[in-house]
Each structure stands twice: as structure tokens, then as C-alpha cells.
Design goal:
Oligomer: single chain
Largest sheet: 5 strands, mixed
Helix content: 25-40%
């Protein structure tokens, strides 16, 4: 795992914080939560202000909460909770007076079924919504997280002349269910999955000798599934890495290090001078030290550059004033347009067979349509779907047809065979994704054949 040494004293915070009181106020909630580990592991200075910030979670988070509850209910009872279809759940935001209404519909149950089916047939001992702990890598006690699913596959029992019967070579699977649609989550290097795996390792290794760990991501709303397998030694390397990060983060002088991983869900990124400087450095092509901590001098120089004339900066170099944010916002259109043009340029070069460092060109998600709308109408009506639901101004899509067939009493697992020959799938729009994406690249640069693409 790539790392750089962090000078813990790089940035001094202006507002004093009692860390012991902050930890106590969290109660049973871990300060070093696995779900936010991608943030504080790469930007130590983000942890403490995010713990103090108000909740800003959006609809996807609320949807995920409901979907996780539905999946857990399904898993506990073994029965598909059809009775929940048509109900609505209100999810409040922490420390806030408002929240989100989330509808439980056929689509949500389909997504939940994807998660249930992904693990139901895997051999081994299954543990769901299991609390695991990893306080040995954090500067404060009682730190842990709740894993969606863990599966322990014990190894073979062998006879050891010195110790009698021994069970060796266990395998651990950690599954994280993601219901968001904002971006794809990949298993490789996933700090959240690795922290769950570390906690599970502490619990099971003493009895089962865990030698291999698999991290799995199921993201059904994006039709995305991913996995990554590591060894025991690799997990111990991560343990040492994350411990250094955790101790660096629990410090009032922790530095801020802006970047795509850590800033994505940071609650204080909008007025963070380090992040703003990072964005401007990008547009200025100042790429040499983008992953370096931002020093007070760097932030002061940046803030002064946004002012008209030389004005003494405020004491708290972490934050931008409203006037400074308004000045910076003027650059948004320029930056957005530049990123869009850059993306199209890279795609064009990849389409011509150029090697893009760390990326590849793949087919995006494709859309389905009926080959013959008349035949589709005939079949759906014959199977009990009301004609007025099938034929509107346009014929329902294959995905909508599947939902209607389910409502008509047809089991979903039988639908693909039922619709076979009626549905066509066109290639999706090319998308740039990390090399860890499981889809095959559109252009195989090793064979030198690009005629069919260009």
C-alpha cells in the first residue's frame, strides 16, 4: 500500500479540543469507524473536525440504511419480506430535525435479494451484522465496527505429533453490501473491508489459524460485484499501516492532506483551504506534491491569493471565509469544463489504442429493449399483466416488464428464460475505470489489433 510519512506537527489547529471528552461524547459510536477510514487514513487532519461536524448524509445513505434493514430481516427469517412493498420509512439525520422518506418497492427487494443470494450458498460459518473490534491499532479503546457479513471457512484438521489434532489453513470472507449509486466501490485496497477483516481476524485466528482473507463488495444498484483476496501477511502489513494513520489522526496538530479518496465524503471539505488549494493546484498543473500535507504557509499563501491585495489571514488557516469561497466558486465552470474535456481526450486516445496509465476503456452499463414490441405485449398480457400497464405511450422496458411479471405472480428467477429471445442488449457507453475493474478492456493493447475499434 502506497504511503508517505506525515509530519504530525505540520498544521496547528486554532480551536482547542478535549480529545478525551470527544471520545466520551461518542458513547458506543467508534471515532475510528471503518466506513470513514478512507478519509482519516489518508487525511489525518479530517478526523477530529468530522467528528464534531453535523451530519450531512444524503438520500443514498438513508436508502442504504433501509435496504440493510430489509436484507437483515430477510436473512433472519429466510422469507422474502413482500409485505414491506409499498411501505415508506422515514430516516432521521443525526443532530438534525429533518431526514428522508424512503420507499420500499420491488426494486429494493431485488437489490436486497442480490445481496442475500451472493452469500447464501457459500460454505462455512456465517455471521451477519457482527460487531468486531480493532482497538489495538487505535489510540483510544473500544473501537470497532459492524460487518454486514462474515464467513469463516475452517481449514483441514491434521494430526500434529506435538499438539494433537490441529485445525489449520482457515479462510475468512468479509462481505460489504453497498446500496449507493454515486460511484463504484472496489474491493482492492478497500480500507473499510480491511478493518472489518482485521477485527474478524482477531476473533477467529487463535482457534482457526486464518491464512487467507477475501474482501467482497456487492453493489446491486450499480450491478457491480467485486472481490480481492489477500494473505495473512498482507493483512498484517495493513495493520501496521492503519495503526500509524490512526495515531497520527488522534492529534490536535494532525495535518490535512487533500485528495480524491479522502475528500469525497468529508463533511468539512467545502471550506477546507487544503482542499481548495488542491483543486487550484490541479488546474495549474502543479502535480509534484499533490499528496503532501498542506503547511500553514501553503494555506496562508493560497488564501492571500484569493484576496484583493495583501490581507492578513484569519487565525484559523483551515477554513475559508464566505467571501473567499465566493471568489473560488467563480472558477467552478472553468474547472468543470476542463475536467470534461480532459476525460473526452483521454477516452479518444484510449479508443485509438493508447495505453492510459492506471486505467482502461471498458463498456459501460448497457440498456435493454424488446426486439419485437408486439410479441412482448402478447406474452406479458398472456401471463396476466394488465394490458394498460404494458401498453402506454411507449412499451415498458425489459426491467419494468420484469417487475410487472413479478407482480403478476411469476417468480423472478424464471423471468430470464421467459423473456429469452425478446430482449436485446446494446453496448454501453465507454467509461474509464480503474484497472481493478473486472470488466475486460475494449482495446487489448498487447495484440496490436485496433481495426474493429477505430
Amino acid at each position: 500500500m502506497t504511503e508517505h510519512k506525515i509530519p504530525v506537527s505540520a498544521i496547528a489547529r486554532a480551536t482547542p479540543v478535549d480529545l478525551d471528552a470527544l471520545a466520551r461524547d461518542r458513547g458506543t459510536h467508534s471515532s475510528f469507524g471503518p466506513s470513514s477510514s478512507h478519509m482519516w487514513a489518508y487525511c489525518p487532519g479530517s478526523l477530529i473536525p468530522n467528528l464534531a461536524a453535523e451530519d450531512n448524509a444524503g438520500y443514498d445513505a438513508a436508502y442504504g440504511t433501509v435496504a440493510h434493514d430489509v436484507t437483515d430481516q430477510w436473512r433472519k427469517t429466510g422469507v422474502k419480506p413482500r409485505h414491506l412493498i409499498g411501505t415508506t420509512v422515514f430516516i432521521e439525520r443525526a443532530n438534525d430535525w429533518w431526514g428522508f422518506f424512503v420507499d420500499i418497492d420491488v426494486d429494493m427487494l431485488d437489490h436486497c435479494q442480490t445481496c442475500v443470494d451472493s452469500v447464501s450458498l457459500l460454505p462455512g460459518m456465517h455471521f451477519y451484522e457482527r460487531r468486531v473490534y480493532f482497538s489495538d491499532v487505535t489510540p483510544i479503546p473500544h473501537q470497532g465496527g459492524t460487518a454486514d457479513c462474515m464467513i469463516l471457512q475452517p481449514g483441514e484438521i491434521v494430526w500434529d505429533l506435538g499438539n494433537g489434532l490441529q485445525r489449520i489453513g482457515a479462510r475468512l470472507i468479509v462481505v460489504d453490501w453497498k446500496f449507493g449509486t454515486g460511484y463504484q466501490v472496489f474491493a482492492e485496497g478497500n480500507t473499510q473491508g480491511l478493518m472489518y477483516a482485521l477485527g474478524a481476524f482477531y476473533e477467529f485466528d487463535i482457534d482457526y489459524d486464518v491464512l487467507e482473507i477475501e474482501i467482497r463488495i456487492e453493489q446491486p444498484r450499480l450491478d457491480h460485484s467485486d472481490s480481492w483476496t489477500i494473505t495473512r501477511d498482507q493483512l498484517m502489513e495493513f495493520r501496521a499501516w492503519i495503526k500509524e494513520r490512526a495515531y497520527a489522526a488522534w492529534d490536535l496538530n494532525a495535518p490535512r492532506v487533500a485528495g480524491p479518496k479522502q475528500c469525497r465524503f468529508c463533511k468539512v471539505k467545502d471550506d477546507c483551504a487544503a482542499n481548495a488549494k488542491f483543486q487550484i493546484d490541479l488546474t495549474a498543473a502543479a502535480f509534484e506534491n499533490l499528496d503532501a500535507p498542506a503547511s500553514p504557509a501553503d494555506m496562508d499563501d493560497f488564501r492571500l491569493g484569493l484576496e484583493i491585495g495583501l490581507i492578513t489571514p484569519a487565525a484559523d488557516v483551515h477554513r475559508l471565509t464566505l467571501e473567499q469561497m465566493a471568489t473560488l466558486y467563480q472558477y467552478r465552470a472553468v474547472v468543470d469544463n476542463w475536467w470534461k474535456s480532459l476525460e473526452e481526450r483521454i477516452k479518444a486516445l484510449a479508443d485509438k489504442g493508447e495505453t492510459i496509465p492506471g486505467m482502461k476503456l471498458v463498456h459501460g452499463r448497457s440498456n435493454r429493449s424488446f426486439k419485437s414490441e408486439a410479441k412482448a405485449i402478447e406474452l406479458l398480457v398472456a401471463k396476466g399483466v394488465p394490458r394498460d400497464k404494458v401498453v402506454k405511450r411507449v412499451v415498458c422496458s425489459p426491467a419494468q416488464a420484469e417487475d410487472l411479471l413479478v407482480e403478476a405472480g411469476i417468480r423472478r428467477k424464471n423471468i430470464p428464460e421467459l423473456l429469452e429471445g425478446l430482449v436485446k442488449r446494446s453496448p454501453g457507453k465507454p467509461s474509464l475505470v480503474p484497472l481493478s475493474d473486472k470488466r475486460e478492456a475494449l482495446v487489448d493493447i498487447t495484440d496490436g489489433v485496433f481495426g474493429s475499434i477505430t
